[in-house]
Amino acid sequence: MEYLGERIYGHCPVPIQNLLMWRYGSLIRKERFGPEYDRLTAFLARSEWFSLDELRAYQEERLRLIVAHAYETVPYYREVMDGLGLTPADIRRLDDLPKLPVLTREAVAANLERLVSTAVPRKSLKKVHSAGTTGTSLYMFWDAAVGYMNNACLWRERRWAGIEFGDPIALMLGRPIVPLRQTKPPFWRYNRSWNQYLFSPIHLKNENIPHYLAQMRRAGVVALDAYPTSAYVLARFMEAEGEYLPLKAVFTTSEPLLEVEREVIEDRFRCRVFDGYSQSERVMFTSECEKHAGHHIYMEYGITEFLDDDGDPVADGTVGRVVGTGLHNFGMPFIRYDVGDTASTSKDACECGRGLPLMGDVAMRAEDVLVMPDGTLMPPLMVARAFKLVPGIVRSQILQSVPEEITARLVVERPLSASDEEDLVRNIAERMGPEVRVRIEYVDDIPLTGRNKYRRVISTVPLTWGGTTTANLYEEEDAARRKREDDPPDGVPADIRSGGTGTGGNGDG
Ligand SMILES: [Zn+2]
């Protein structure tokens, strides 16, 4: 929201905030739509039906462009390729990609400025911060082209669900658009330019949720785009109240979608969930189609490899580390970037008939919902973002066992200065409220939990829905999984599930 000046926005009355949102929406609309967006949209509508060979030919054409550009204008790649005795002529086919090393998040952090193209004017690039899978702070740049491409992919995902630009949509993602200290409705703002209602992801509690649902009904929204945890909170609340809110689609992104979440959301919103996955690094974009047989990999967006620990491709149907090459960001190219998540490849063709291949289960971060002292349920990402602007943090984890206190566990590459520590505590307080105590604990390592998942947010505080109480998310999911494993439905192996996450989010429109 850099056009607005977030601090000024936060102090304006609601009607002015709506006007600012309209103006901001109009500016962003210019940035993401236009002749190039139209061209890409028309192309994507055709290319989704391409054969695998045609899609690969397209990828190789783009790969040659981006590698030549990186070699000529990006100091980091020039050094790496010169060091290996490679020139762009050596990287012409998909099979040539393994000649280049995998780019780790650590290498990106150590070479941020040297990964930016010297040929693209800096003021034409958009700077973005990413908290990343392991809670490490990073920033990156996007050029205009990748902005159009990302938006065209986002709207293809929505079209697969029957949603067009201009349809009234509810969004519950991203930056806090309603100040935390606000205690009365409206807990939403309206972006007239996009016909989108932006609902606050940080005011979800039993007293407030009826206002959310009433406004969604009043506005006649046909779809919801939200973190899985936010959509889940609304759905669980409706379940406790015996309510429904029929929509055409719910889009989820940025966090893993658990099976318990999908079930309750689909039940209460009377529609299917379309899960999507992407990252700020813009190397990969996937989403479900109307058949929900897994995630389609958007091959036009990037090249995806699934690798084992030795860096070799894994066999079809097995799980590998996800490594992506973005095909559209010439401002800061990411070539063979290790995303930090694992996913399984799939050889199955989707019933929809599209040529885009399917990806199986994404295994990644696992997060609980945080509970504030006044009962507000906070999406984990909103708080995890507090870490992203503090340098020197290698890994972070938030622990909560009572609503009044959270512990931030940190692995650091160097001790944080007193002012960095203060910044961090303030960032967290801005998201959780000043009454929550924040303890910082330095540790040598944050181990993975069961099923090899890195848990960035762990809360053991139970969740209350009107008169009923459930365990926090992961306990709930584990219980449901144990039940499924004990008693699998006929013919369906218990381990076939779908899911997805992304640190950048498909739904940042
Ligand atoms: Zn499909």
How would you describe this protein?
The chain is of the alpha/beta class and 509 residues long. The protein is 32% helix and 21% strand. A hairpin with a 2-residue loop joins strand 17 and strand 18 (405-412). The protein has a 12-stranded mixed sheet with strand order 4-5-3-6-7-8-9-10-14-13-12-11, with helices on both faces. Strands 19-18-17-20 form a 4-stranded mixed sheet, with helices on one face. Helix 9 (228-241) crosses helix 10. The longest helix has 22 residues, at 52-73. The chain has 13 helices and 22 strands. The protein has helices at residues 6-10, 14-32, 35-47, 52-73, 75-83, 105-110, 144-160, 209-219, 228-241, 259-269, 380-384, 418-432, 473-486; strands at residues 126-130, 138-142, 169-172, 188-191, 196-199, 223-226, 249-252, 272-278, 285-287, 295-297, 302-307, 319-326, 337-345, 358-363, 370-371, 377-378, 393-402, 405-412, 437-442, 457-459, 463-465, 468-470. Among the domains are: 35-151 and 279-363, 3-Layer(aba) Sandwich (Rossmann fold), CATH 3.40.50.12780; 370-486, ANL, C-terminal domain (GMP Synthetase, Chain A, domain 3, 2-Layer Sandwich), CATH 3.30.300.30. The protein starts with 5 loop residues before the first helix and ends in a 23-residue tail after the last helix. Residues 490-505 have low confidence and may be disordered. The relative contact order is 0.13. The structure holds zinc ion (ZN). Residues 289, 291, 293, 296, 350, 352, 354 line the site of zinc ion. Zinc ion is lined by residues 289, 291, 293, 296, 350, 352, 354.
